[in-house]
Write a structure and sequence with these properties.
The complex is a heterodimer of chains A (109) and B (115).
Chain A lengths: L2 E3 L3 E5 L4 E8 L5 E7 L6 E6 L3 E5 L2 E6 L4 E6 L8 E8 L5 E3 L3 E6 L1
Chain B lengths: L4 E3 L2 E4 L5 E6 L6 E7 L5 E8 L14 E5 L5 E5 L8 E8 L9 E2 L3 E5 L1
Parallel strand pairs in B: 2-10
Antiparallel strand pairs in B: 1-3, 3-7, 4-5, 4-8, 6-7, 8-9, 8-10
The chains are: A mainly beta (109), B mainly beta (115).
Chain lengths: 109, 115
């Protein structure tokens, strides 16, 4: 079957760095995406990795290792507004996007 | 310009009725996506359109679900003979290019409640 695993919850303090991991098992793989969703809000697209390596966009970075079927989202200089749920998603070879169950990040002062 | 808009914002219907959900993407965006999110759950991908065509419709949960997009713009998601398990927030997103590599901009969603 197809599955993506990510931790259900992560906590951290303001200013810290947090890494949210995602391992996947899917039928084919085109790329790994990350989304942010605040409570009651719509998801916001954060990043897409098709190739191995680290991609940086401001305080957020996303990493992919295709050989390990693994990726992570790295959030630096955490702010209270980063408290949200973060979803990883894999685009498989049938043009379907498979989502993980989400990681709830809580940032404390 | 305006973002992605969806209508209605809320829809309450009785089991067995048909509903139609509408999505207006950002002008000029060629790709359009439909997702579903049940309470406290992750996102479930339903279908995406590149222009007016949908390369793969197998993400739709059942044959009661259908979607179309006309004129490369507005899309409608239709659910026939609604069931209680269809209750969820239905989200639409659009992107300038397709293939999931471009930034997707989400609409506010339609909250569907089937009684």
């Amino acid at each position: 079957g197809q599955s993506l695993e990510q931790p259900s919850e992560v906590t951290a303090v303001e200013g810290a760095i947090v890494q949210i991991n995602c391992t996947y098992q899917t039928s084919g793989f085109y790329g790994l995406s990350w989304y942010q969703q605040h409570d009651g809000g719509a998801p916001t697209f954060l990043s897409y990795n098709a190739l191995d390596g680290l991609e940086e966009t401001g305080r957020f970075s996303s990493f992919l290792s295709r050989s390990d079927s693994y990726g992570y989202l790295l959030l630096q200089e955490l702010q209270m507004k980063d408290s949200a749920s973060y979803f990883c998603a894999v685009l498989d070879n049938t043009d379907k996007l498979i989502f993980g169950t989400g990681t709830r990040l809580q940032v404390f002062p | 310009g305006a973002g992605v808009s969806q209508s209605p914002s809320n829809k309450v219907t009785e089991k067995g009725k048909d509903v139609e959900l509408r999505c207006d993407p950002i002008s000029g965006h060629t790709a359009l996506y439909w997702y579903r999110q049940s309470l406290g759950q992750g996102l479930e991908f339903l279908i995406y359109f590149q222009g007016n065509s949908a390369p793969d419709k197998s993400g739709l949960p059942s044959d009661r679900f259908s979607a179309e997009r006309t004129g490369g713009s507005v899309s409608t998601l239709t659910i026939q003979r609604t069931q209680q398990e269809d209750s969820a927030v239905y989200l639409c997103a659009s992107s300038l290019g397709g293939g999931f590599t471009d930034t997707q901009y989400f609409g506010p969603g339609t909250r569907l409640t089937v009684l």
